[in-house]
Write a structure and sequence with these properties.
homooctamer; 203 residues; alpha/beta; Rossmann fold; 6-stranded parallel β-sheet; 9 helices; globular; hydrolase (chains A, B, C, D, E, F, G, H); hydrolase activity (chains A, B, C, D, E, F, G, H); Hydrolase (chains A, B, C, D, E, F, G, H); Isochorismatase-like_dom (chains A, B, C, D, E, F, G, H)
């Protein structure tokens, strides 16, 4: 067995989208708002398109953190939503952990707000238990570039792989012939430049 | 009569959206793609919401410039589309000019790709004929910030007012009580931060 | 009389702080949050220190725009707060206009959120009626740099003077000997680098 | 025992704030002044809120480096302040080392000015002696981004974990129910966007 | 006659390319080297394509300023090159002025290194004598953005129009049907994104 | 044998240029277009100059991804072009793998669009099979800086060496005396500043 | 007489360097420290080289503003230094005004810290009295880019000309033959790139 | 012996300054010119102040690379200068290697132009032979940030420590009492902000 880090495998992966809540979005300053909302929804649409088990979570959604982003819920209406009453690290919430472990998956694809806490803590916890973790950097946001970069280094040095949502989709697809139209529709909707290339062809 | 530049008046204004074509979008480097597509569609949705006469135009849409952005067309399916066979300045196209003048409006709200040509040329032409011109800076794109800033100075010094799509919407609305829900829906869709504030209230 | 733009004169000036509301702050992307909140509070503290009449205003503060920034209210507990039920341009609100005109001042120092609407509209209205207008650029915020810069050009070309809060304070003070300690305290609190210089001297 | 890097544990941690002196603040160019002062004070307030032993230090505070930031001292009036007569690496100062070792803690949370010297040197010394070190990147400042990034890489490659003050607070808190109001007050004061969310709820 | 600034007219325009010398290129820091060299050559190619009279100039080309950019000379092998023995403002050189006036043109299209001197001085001199001046901002370079922006404001306030090379080409062409292939070839060579659109069509 | 990462050795290296297609270029936002096209062509010219075996590849070149950049093809007219009918990871394409393995080389120099997929996937695959991989960072492009940086960290942590095209050329050359004029010509063409230095000498 | 703004004329100009004090330098955030100190000294050296009358000034130099920059004083040991006891606008200080008027010059070249106050106030005062004012933008510094840009617009709209120190030197020199070695030495010292070009020639 | 990376030790270190040549400086785009020249000279002055053996080198200094920076030579007039006739990697030059090995030092402090070649190659060579290598990141320059960052990662992953010149000086000094005035003079000259703090004290 090679020690080289592996790719995401569709049959082994679960997606965790943590604390994408309306209040917390206002804390995110390492992305522009249009770009960030799009990235979050794109990851959700990717999870849906490939039929990956997906777990949503919120933290104290009655308070200032706000409610789960409604547009995210619309894409994934059937995903379980774990409403944490207080645990900052989702891994500390028994319901969350049970739900995750019930999937039986060993590869975790994770994104959330904020990168340095809601993503970093479960990432480190999962790595400690032997999971492979793929942190989706562009669907995770935080206060500043320095907070982001430091969290990235911390997680990567602990063994996580840093990845963007587009690469997640491509690793799951592996071959365009595994459903050309679906992938094209996903990219057309969430990558304006790709959409323009596709529209240009339809002429 | 005051010499102070006036606001946009709903009854006097026409919207020109020039050359928002799939090929030309790939030339735009003064905005990120997500942000720019959103701004363009937001201006179209504003024009539609306020029922302003709107004229779309393309330049040589059989060639590399590409076709009219389909998502823009979906918002404004009934707006006239002037397909210019070669004139770079829309003002030089008789059909365009006739269509514009038939609206009888004297305030022009204009956006397009690229700012320094497809927007600047008709802006200067319109100002020379006595129109008031409002250039929508964030729904217009070009190659670089230096090209943009120079075109802004050129147009502003010639008498144009520089404005962003949000301000266009607000000047047309004047009072939130002139249709609260419509404006809120417009902002919810096209301003993620505003959408999050509104979603938070619905809790 | 010289046509050169004049300075702010303490006896002629009124301060307008428009729509610095908790929800609207989340729309501001042309400043970092720490810097912007500090600038807003610094302008309020400047107005208080010099005893300038100051008018606060909010727009639909029961909705997503949120409530008046509490820290701002703490600095200026006695200033009138005009709660506009819908008018986007404060100038369109009779109570606001009456309150403003009752001050008898002809120099307006104005800041607000967002620059391109809540600041730009009353600025243009005031200029049209012959007021001198000083736009406090660093206590006003908006969606993007391009929106800000365009609003600045529009207002400046209409006759407004662009200024930052520090320059407002300095023009009002004119001479350090007009109350050295008060001004130093203002700067020590709101300009970290200045505060460090002052602390260094106390050693 | 897992090799995965662990979290900060309240019972095992000591905070070191090194050389946050009024003169040295003027050397910091990798943060804006408002943001940086706020971050430093936020880390101090975090240490205080969680009751962590905290050691302050200065370097030659009679000279150009200036005095300990007074606002920092106000938050932590009882923390020991080690005034180093010349040692650049605090670890070389016997009083500092004795004070640190007397706490019996094995996790060090460290910040200071400048990152590449006053933070990096004791970090490397502590790692060499088997401490776990958490470098608080946003309460540490230096001359430039390239100096910062290089120091980060150097420390991370030596085994330090890079973290921001917000994540420090969250790892110490672990669960919002461990004192909801205290944490909320901390965030309300030091994170303007969070403060606005909380203020909005009070309406 | 309208006071609105006019467009460039092919029959009335002369191009001045001032001091694009190999040494002076190393002073240019407001553009990346690839982008800037391309812009300069693109302006030369535009002048050639439209057959505009073009005057090149150098300043002390035996010294540190270096020789005329060879690639520029290759595009315009027959243009006169005025080698100024010392005059900083080309307008002060009799041979230059004579050559310019002999063209009989009243519209000057000018670019050079550095923007704030070699472009600004002849621009102000030409405006003072009643010429229309179009400053090609992206084929002119200087030490910093602040030097550039200030020179732009100075020249624009004196009456110059700021423009980029692409807009120069488009105003000269006016209609794509005035030689579609030539213009397309010009853009394909000097605008990579445009080139890619054109190549895509050839498939 | 030292564990230190080695240099590129001319006799052991093969160059892979993956998916430099006209459509995909419009997705690249981490470089300006002029700079990026130049870097890509410079890498190709380097491969050619040193006579390295080079394999080009495209992905679905009948669709929106577009055709192989014609200027790249002109430099390397004889290199094999593997047209992948669907495989996203070139390593999954048997023809590609056969062609690569037929070279017998164990050092791979790779660049492509986009960095996080078309470069990262074959890089990880090659590392897993024991190849030394050199990722040419400035001839590879993607959507954003955060996507790029994350892919770099992922690949570097897996064992790849990050390098730029200039360093590739220098490691292949080792000594200027191994063909001074050829290397100088390469740099003169693709590094404007170097070209200006060389031109200056010819005076 | 032409209305076009004129150049600086050596026989008509006086240089004002206002409040370049050691404390105030730490407030400057729109330039990097190395670059800004160099620009300030370069302007002083320019004034000295051309023998222009130069007036230095300080504001409360016993307090936090600090003393006059020693390196500046070394260049201009004989220039008068007006130590203002409190007036923020140097124009309000009788000694300053008398000294200035005694020069009999009508063109003012001014720089200082901070741009928006110590430069802007005397600039507006001088313009009101009919002086021509040249604001040296790169030898003047302030808190932020937005403060700088706004002050630039305010001053330029009032009639000031924005210029950088290099352009000041060039307008004073007019012709390289008016003392080639002196100008070259000035540039060699204060423009590293120019210095390198000159050093290269000496080989 | 601890595996933690050690500090620079004065008795064990040699300084290599590679290819700081007048031509090559014009290639450096990851620093502003003032800042970079200052950093290079500061490192030289540091080497001199601590009396470290220092080796200078040039590459083909009769050609476009230019001559050794004269100001650097002035600081270190007695250091050996190895003029490489062609070897790109200084390690490949026998005279260089002999000179280096004759020092008997095992810690190498290295800087040069360009980072990714002239610094990276000898760094990797030295690491392979068991040297400790400290790469001075701010006295080394290259074409772009992406080239720099990649070279940093490559060298750091191979075992080099990244450091800035200020940290080099501090690690060599260890304690301010080891010659307070000399270090202060070094910082006063090369760190403007530090200089201002020191000047302020002299008042």
């Amino acid at each position: 067995m090679s020690a080289t880090p592996g790719f995401i495998r569709k049959e082994d992966a679960v997606v965790l989208m943590l604390d994408h809540q309306t209040g917390l979005f206002s804390l995110v300053r390492d992305f522009q708002p249009d770009e960030f909302r799009n990235n979050v929804l794109a990851l959700a649409a990717t999870a849906k398109y490939f039929g990956l088990p997906t777990i949503l979570a919120t933290s104290m959604d009655q308070g200032p953190n706000g409610v789960l982003l409604p547009q995210l819920r619309e894409i994934l209406p059937d995903a379980p939503v774990i409403k944490r009453p207080g645990e900052i690290n989702a891994w500390d919430n028994p319901e969350f952990l049970t739900t995750l472990k019930a999937t039986g998956k060993k590869q975790i694809i994770v994104a959330g707000i904020v990168t340095d806490v809601c993503v970093a803590m479960p990432t480190l916890s999962a790595l400690a238990e032997g999971y492979e973790v793929f942190v989706v950097v562009d669907a995770s946001g935080t206060f500043s570039n320095v907070a982001r970069d430091s969290a990235h280094i911390r997680m990567a040095n602990a063994g996580a792989q840093l990845i963007n949502w587009f690469a997640v989709a491509c690793e799951l697809q592996r071959d365009w012939r595994n459903g050309l139209e679906g992938l094209a529709a996903l990219f057309e909707k969430h990558i304006p430049d790709y959409g323009n290339l596709i529209s240009g062809l339809k002429r």
